[in-house]
Structure formats: C-alpha cells, structure tokens
Amino acid sequence: MVRTTNPRKFIHFFNKFKAERNLNDRYNIPVEVKVVEVGPRDGLQNEPVNVPTNTKIEFINRLSETGLKAIEVTSFVSPKWIPQMADNAKVFQGIQKKSNIDYPVLIPNVKGLETALSVGVKEIAVFASASEAFSRKNTNCSAEEGINRIREIIDSAKTHNLKVRGYVSCVVGCPYDGFIKPLAVTKIVTALLELGCYEVSLGDTIGVGTKKTIYNMIKDIVNVTEAKNLAIHCHDTFGQALNNVCTALDLGITVVDSSVSGLGGCPYAKGATGNVATEDVIYMLHGLGSNTGIDLKKLIGVGHFISNAINRPTASKVNAALYSKYFL
Ligand SMILES: CC(C)(COP(=O)([O-])OP(=O)([O-])OC[C@H]1O[C@@H](n2cnc3c(N)ncnc32)[C@H](O)[C@@H]1OP(=O)([O-])[O-])[C@@H](O)C(=O)NCCC(=O)NCCSC(=O)C[C@@](C)(O)CC(=O)[O-]
Known about the structure:
Elements: H1 7-21, E1 34-37, H2 39-43, H3 53-63, E2 70-71, H4 88-94, E3 105-106, H5 110-118, E4 123-129, H6 132-139, H7 143-159, E5 163-169, E6 173-174, E7 178-179, H8 182-195, E8 199-204, H9 211-221, E9 230-234, H10 241-250, E10 255-258, H11 278-287, H12 296-309, H13 317-327
Parallel strand pairs: 1-2, 1-10, 3-4, 4-5, 5-8, 8-9, 9-10
Antiparallel strand pairs: 6-7
Helix pairs in contact: 3-4, 3-12, 7-8, 8-9, 9-10, 11-12, 12-13
C-alpha cells in the first residue's frame, strides 16, 4: 500500500513546529540579509602583487553597481605594516560614491582617522582582538591597549559624526594562542558596543571555526547583547565558512561580511585564506529565500574582473560554475 501525506495535515504540523521554535517561513533564515563587501580592503591587503590604484577604483565602482549597500574601501593603517593599502586616500577620493551605499574604511589609530577625515570619510571600522598574541602581532599593542586606542578613535569620530563599526578578530581561534574561549570574545564585543560601535563583526580570522564553536561563541554573546548588533565575518581556510554563516543566521545575525571571489586574508595570520566568497553567500541566501538586493550575475562579472586583474583563479565556487553560463 502506498502511503500519501495529507498536505493540510503536513502544513498544520509544520506551522505548529515553526511556532514552537519561533522559525520564520525561510528555514529560520532572516528574510532580509545585509552583505558587507570587504574585498577591496580585507581582500587586497594581503595580495602579493601590487594592484594599481586605478584597478582598485574600477573594482569598487563596479561593486557599487551590484546592489551592495556597504563596501569597505581601504584601510588607513601604517604603510610600513601594510604597503598594499598605502594608496588609501587616492582610492577613497577616486571612487564614485553612491548616496545609498556606505563606504567604511578601517582605522587603527587617531593618525589614520585624521587622514581619513581629510578625504571625507563618513564611516570607519575599528578592530580589536579576542586574543592577546594576535593583538600584539597585528597592532603592536596588548588587547587592553588596543581598546584604549579605539576609545581615542571613537571619541574623536563622535565629534565628527562618523558611524563606527567594530571588528573582533580571532573569535574562535588564534594562530598564536590557539582556542579562544567565548567569554573572551563577549568581553571585547561588550567593550566595543559600550564605546559606541553601532555593530560588531565577529571575525573568524583564520577560518578554523566549525558549527559548534561558532554556535557556542555567538550564544555566549547574545546573552548580553542582541543579535541585531552583530555581524559575522568568516574566512574559509577549512571550507567551513558557509556553514558557519548559516549558523550565525540561525542565531539571528542578519549582517554578513564577505569578499568577492573569496579574496583576502590577514598578513598577520599566515596560512589563513580569504573570506567566504560574496558570490557563494549570495547564491546560498537567494536559494534560502532571503532578500539581499544584490544582482548575482553582476557580482560574478566583478569577481571575474578582479581575479583577472590579480591573475588568480576565483576562489568562488559559484563564480567558477556560473561565469561561462552568464558571460561566454
Ligand atoms: C597600529 C599600527 C599603526 C601600530 O604600529 P606601530 O609601528 O606600533 O606605530 P607607530 O606609532 O610607532 O608608527 C610607526 C610608523 O608608522 C606610521 N603610522 C602609524 N600609524 C599610521 C597610520 N594610521 N597611517 C600612516 N602611517 C602611520 C608612523 O607615523 C610611524 O612612521 P615613521 O615615524 O616611522 O616614519 C600598526 O600596527 C598597523 O598599522 N597595524 C595594522 C595592521 C593591519 O592592517 N592588519 C590587517 C587589518 S585587521 C584584519 O584584517 C582583521 C579583520 C578586521 O579583517 C577581521 C578578521 O578577519 O579578524
């Protein structure tokens, strides 16, 4: 005998299940997800080849045509530490800015903030680390000194009405200190929010997170702040990034950082690969029924452009699979 499912009964039980678990119609995935493109900064800061300033400008202008609402343009860090970002002011001044897009830049100290202000930056991102050793390698100061520097930056940024976003690096693992306890991350997130960051992005800098460690870390943080104050920033070194992004979305986070073509890595996290590819994130989100406002085809075109420019095959599986269908 063939058993058939009564669709009405099924829908009744499904709705009851959703109500019990507070799920929405999209498999517990938020209906609207904001994607922050970090390729021009996080992506290009680690490039061994010198990317010409004009190429960076064209890259960002093309990204501005895809429907993205936030593009991290560059960083105003020391050129002695990160020579790849030495053309920060020229890049920021050279891009065509759209009024409906935020163009944040990364700032390590007040000196960087002053240069950023001189070229008309409206939003900045500050960065701290949940790990002591990474803080020292990345910013030449302890984690506590890092927070003090951020306080100075934010105090000054407030007087100029700048929006400030925060990052915490090494949220589940550090290349020097190993496993990071959730509590260490929660403390830094709390400090950044108290200082005035409107949102804190949780960086799995070396891409070691798994569903379990990402879940435990976010669960600890959402005990003290709402998920709407958080973003997720996953590198894909161990191929876990999409799954980890999904875990964050499940826990109510609705902002995802990613890098077109999977560009990137941090120079002070050797061996770590790029961010999760924006094309892969968008394909996944659209497949789940989430709205991003981003045109995947255009994004694939931009991913191809930058991969060609740096002479490297794309790290985006979606780009590799769909480029020829769309463009050849
Ligand atoms: C924080 C510092 C500056 C301390 O670096 P320091 O060497 O301790 O600083 P200093 O004050 O002694 O200055 C040294 C020299 O740099 C100059 N300098 C100093 N600051 C600036 C500035 N803003 N702009 C331009 N020049 C600057 C300064 O003027 C001086 O020049 P000199 O007198 O020798 O000619 C340095 O360690 C630095 O720039 N670190 C940034 C490293 C970095 O960019 N890492 C990657 C970004 S973080 C990341 O990728 C993680 C993230 C956010 O994506 C999330 C995740 O995945 O986890």
